[in-house]
Write a structure and sequence with these properties.
The protein is α+β, with helices and mostly antiparallel strands. The protein has seven helices and nine strands, in the order ββααααβββαβαββαβ. A nine-stranded mixed β-sheet has the order 7-8-6-5-4-3-2-1-9, sandwiched between helices. The two termini are 31 Å apart. Bound molecules: acetyl coenzyme *A.
């Protein structure tokens, strides 16, 4: 039996302004789409992501994905992570990752995401994060999900607000981003704060519809 109750998985669909959003486990055959979007959207992604050792294009070359995919899948099998792809109308458009899954008395994890620039502002990340949270609080059995975001990242802060995250404080010089340790806001949500589901809440707020 899988040690991870929530992986592999297929979540949704939810219909956002941009189309039908689904979230599913990453696949080996995501290589070409992943590399193409990551290389093309470097300027859009790099200001918000941890500093890497190799140059951006090298880290996102299509040949990197198989090794990365295998290590993500291995973490997923160990129950440490849920590495998911976001699809818009059936096409790969980003990633949603739940990491540092801790069981026992903590039952917590962090969530992170990116969505290609071309479809930004159409509710895709909001719908995907809602689906991810419902999965974490449902089949995965977590009690708390947290996220960290740079205060300057207005789009991501809007996504976190849209799905109901609560701010807990500022982590000073938390993460090395573009070569410097940057402050990050810590936001969190526990299962008690979600009567029903996050997706239902989005639908009631008019931000998505059941597809
Ligand atoms: N200032 C203020 N609000 C903004 C701005 C801006 N410059 N740009 C966009 N927004 C708002 C939009 O109006 C929208 O808010 P609304 O729904 O209340 O109208 C919100 O930001 C975007 O919501 P979605 O359309 O659901 O999100 P989208 O699919 O565009 O994806 C994301 C947002 C994921 C932040 C995307 O821009 C991205 O991938 N950025 C680069 C990587 C990144 O920042 N990832 C998140 C890191 S933090 C973390 O993972 C916890």
């Amino acid at each position: 039996m899988s040690r991870h109750p929530g992986w592999p998985a297929r979540l949704g669909p939810l219909r956002a302004a941009g189309g039908v959003v689904t979230v599913r486990s990453v696949r080996l055959r995501d290589a070409a789409a992943w590399s193409r979007l990551r290389v093309r959207d470097r300027a859009h992604l790099e200001p918000w992501e941890p500093t890497g050792e190799a140059p951006w294009d090298m880290r996102h070359h299509v040949s990197v994905w198989p090794g990365l995919y295998r290590s993500l899948r291995s973490e997923a099998h160990k129950g440490m992570m849920l590495p998911m792809a976001i699809e818009l109308d059936g096409r790969f458009c980003g990633q949603l990752t739940v990491g540092n899954v801790v069981r026992g008395a903590l039952r917590s994890a962090w969530i992170g995401y990116w969505v290609e620039k071309e479809v930004n502002g159409l509710g895709v990340a909001t719908a995907a994060v809602a689906l991810g949270l419902d999965h974490c609080f449902g089949p995965v059995g977590l009690h708390r999900v947290e996220a960290t975001v740079r205060p300057e990242n207005e789009a991501s802060r809007a996504v976190l607000r849209n799905v109901g995250f609560r701010e807990e404080g500022l982590l000073k010089r938390y993460l090395d981003v573009q070569g410097r340790f940057r402050d990050h806001l810590l936001v969190a949500m526990t299962v008690e704060e979600v009567p029903g589901t996050v997706s239902d809440r989005l639908v009631r707020a008019g931000r998505a519809t059941w597809s």
